[in-house]
Structures are given as structure tokens and as C-alpha cells.
Specification:
By secondary structure, the chain is of the alpha/beta class. The protein is built from 12 helices and 11 strands. It has helices at residues 2-17, 43-55, 76-81, 114-123, 126-136, 176-184, 197-203, 214-220, 247-252, 255-287, 299-319, 321-344; strands spanning 26-31, 60-65, 87-90, 141-149, 155-157, 171-173, 188-190, 208-209, 228-231, 239-246, 293-296. A 3-stranded antiparallel β-sheet has the order 3-10-4, sandwiched between helices. Strands 5-9-11 form a 3-stranded mixed β-sheet, with no helix packed on it. Strands 7-6-8 form a 3-stranded parallel β-sheet, covered by helices on one side. Helix 2 (43-55) packs antiparallel against helix 10 (255-287) and helix 6 packs across helix 11 (299-319). It is globular, with a radius of gyration of 20 Å.
């Protein structure tokens, strides 16, 4: 907490010493893709909005709009790029149909742990690549990593997954590149916002769903409809959220205001990860008392899912130059990171 306060305090001091009083006062509407009561996923957006308003001394005031109140969750990118709103907060993987490389910045099946992803993003050129990826597809946005959480669950099912055949014909809500993997296995994959999933499960519109980590899935009530919650979250080992800012609006900001956005989002990334890690164990431990069967996907099934994932990633890389460039950059980083990761951490069973 002291470090986070120091980060935003330094940025605030910059604002004061560079004359924030003469900076143009900016008023940003911030539609969000996730309800701000969802820990680690939606809560960072509210914290950032409050922090920017306070730390800027009012020169940058940000007002949050809950999902669907101003912009539909899946329309945030286009609305920000078009200047209909100044900024938005979302999981950018929703836009893989418009920007094929974007899921690599959002969640990668069998991908990096959260802290490994932030290492690559901040120090391996990820942030710069992200700006280029959007620009190459004609979107006028500045993107700032502004939240991250750890693994999701592998989803909620009426029956456990014991073989790859169990995915065939399954009507399931599944996001991002993981959805492409399940489509390859014969699943009928659909995408819908989190707020619609409980009703879709209850009515049988879908047979199963994934959404997020236990602390969030509990709030959405999936355990009231189906009782098998599967692990690990192979499809999203990290889930990264971003603040998207209209490019013209970003260019209007002073250096001090830019520094505040960057510092606040960096702090929110740390806070979001911490909140999820703090809450998930307790929620998962209590699931059994609620009749939930928390099962592990068999290791041989995970290996097969990994093989299909590699096929999907190679196929996507062959179709889009940006995807290929980012994918290769991440793989190059992981080759050296694995040397550290495999040696440095105490095994979990100890």
C-alpha cells in the first residue's frame, strides 16, 4: 500500500509542479464492461476514476458508467475510437473479431502467469506493440494496462469434463482464443456479457459457461444452477483489463495528466491482482458447503487441450502479421523466463 500511495503521490506532485492549474480541465465519461462490484475485474475501474479525479486536483475528472448504462460492453472499443466517449474500461479480448492479435494482450490459453505477463508488457515491448496493433487496424485509441487477475476457473458444467469428446456439441459461453480451441473440438461457442449468463444457464440457452475467478463467479450465482466447477483455468492463466482512451483526447492531456493515468493504472493493476488472490481461496474453500463439486480436469485431457491450443495459435499467426509478431515476442520472452520460473519458486506442495 505504501508503494501504491508513493506511485500516485509522485504523479500528483508532478501535476502540481508542472502547473496543473493551467492545464485544460478534462471531463471523461468511462463506460465499463464489468460491474464495479466485481473484485479485481471491475473494481479497478472505480478506483482509477476516483484516484485520477483526486490526484489531478480536479483537472481530470472521470465518471464511471456501469455496464450498458452508456455503451454496450462489447461496443466500448468502437465508441472510444469514434470519440463518442472519451475513454472506456474493458477486457479487450472481446474485440478479437476486429483486431485478431488483441487476445494475446488479454488472455492466452496455457499462457503466462500474471506477473510474467506484466514483465513482458512493461519491459518486453508489449505496451508499444499494443498501440501499434490498434493503429494498424484503424482504431484511434491509446491503451493502458489497468488491471489484471490470476487464473479463471475452467468453467461451470452440469457434468464433469473427462475427455475431449465431452466438449462436442456442448453449448458453452467461452471467451477469446480458448473459445476457438473449443470450437475446434466441436463445441457450440457463444459470447455474451457476464450479466446475462445466469439467466442463459437457467433457461438452457447454454449448457455451460466460463466467466472469471471464484470470487466473481460466486457473485454471479452460477453455483445455483450447475454444480461442477472445473479447474485449472487453462484458457486464461491471466486476464488483463485496459483503459482505452480516445487518441485525440489522449493528445489533449498534459504530460502531468499522462503521468497520472499511467501511475494510477499501474497501481490498479497491482491492486486488482492482490484483491483476487486475497479473496479466491476463502470462496473456493466454502464452495463445498454450497454443494459445488470443484474438480480438476484430468492431466491427459489438459495435455490434449494444450496440443489443440498450439494448433490454434499457429493458425492465427499464419493469418495476421500483428498476431505473428506479438506471438513470437511472447514466446521469445518465455524461453528465458522459464529458466527462472522453473528454478526460483518453491513447489506448491511444499
Amino acid at each position: 500500500m505504501k508503494l501504491l500511495k508513493a506511485l500516485t503521490g509522485i504523479a500528483g506532485a508532478i501535476a502540481l509542479t508542472t502547473g496543473s492549474a493551467v492545464a485544460e480541465d478534462l471531463r471523461w465519461k468511462l463506460p465499463v464492461a464489468f460491474a464495479t462490484n466485481l473484485p479485481g475485474l471491475g473494481s479497478p475501474a472505480a478506483w482509477v476514476a476516483d484516484n485520477l479525479t483526486t490526484a489531478s486536483g480536479g483537472s481530470l475528472q472521470v465518471r464511471v458508467y456501469e455496464p450498458g448504462k452508456l455503451v454496450p460492453p462489447f461496443d466500448i472499443l468502437q465508441s472510444v475510437s469514434d470519440g463518442k466517449v472519451e475513454a472506456g474500461y474493458t477486457w479487450i479480448g472481446y474485440d478479437q473479431g476486429k483486431v485478431p492479435a488483441i487476445p494475446l494482450f488479454a488472455a492466452v490459453p496455457f499462457g503466462m502467469k500474471p506477473w510474467a505477463y506484466t514483465a513482458w508488457y512493461y519491459y518486453g515491448g508489449g505496451h508499444e506493440m499494443l498501440q501499434e496493433v490498434y493503429a494498424n487496424k484503424g482504431f484511434d485509441v491509446h491503451a493502458q494496462l489497468c488491471g489484471i487477475i490470476g487464473p479463471e476457473t475452467a468453467g461451470w458444467y452440469a457434468e464433469p469434463i473427462k475427455t475431449l469428446e465431452d466438449y462436442k456439441g456442448l453449448k458453452i459461453r467461452f471467451a477469446g482464443l480458448g473459445g476457438k480451441v473449443l470450437e475446434k473440438l466441436g463445441a457450440s461457442v457463444t459470447m455474451m456479457p457476464g450479466g446475462e449468463l445466469y439467466q442463459a444457464l437457467e433457461k438452457g440457452t447454454i449448457d455451460a459457461t466460463e466467466f472469471s475467478m471464484p470470487a466473481i463467479d460466486q457473485i454471479l450465482g452460477f453455483n445455483q444452477v450447475v454444480k461442477y466447477n472445473l479447474f485449472p483455468g487453462w484458457h486464461q492463466q491471466f486476464t488483463a483489463q485496459y483503459m482505452l482512451i480516445n487518441k485525440d483526447e489522449w493528445n489533449r492531456t498534459t504530460d502531468a495528466q499522462k503521468a497520472l493515468v499511467e501511475a494510477s493504472c499501474t497501481a490498479a493493476t497491482t491492486r486488482g491482482l492482490a484483491e483476487g488472490e486475497y479473496k479466491n481461496g476463502k470462496v473456493l474453500a466454502e464452495f463445498q458447503d454450497k454443494g459445488v463439486q470443484a474438480d480438476q480436469i484430468p492431466r491427459d485431457v489438459l495435455k490434449q487441450l494444450q496440443e489443440v491450443t498450439e494448433q490454434v495459435l499457429e493458425e492465427e499467426a499464419s493469418k495476421d502479421a500483428d498476431f505473428k509478431r506479438v506471438y513470437e515476442s511472447q514466446n521469445e520472452f518465455m524461453e528465458t523466463y522459464k529458466v527462472w520460473d522453473s528454478r526460483a519458486y518453491v513447489p506448491t506442495d511444499l
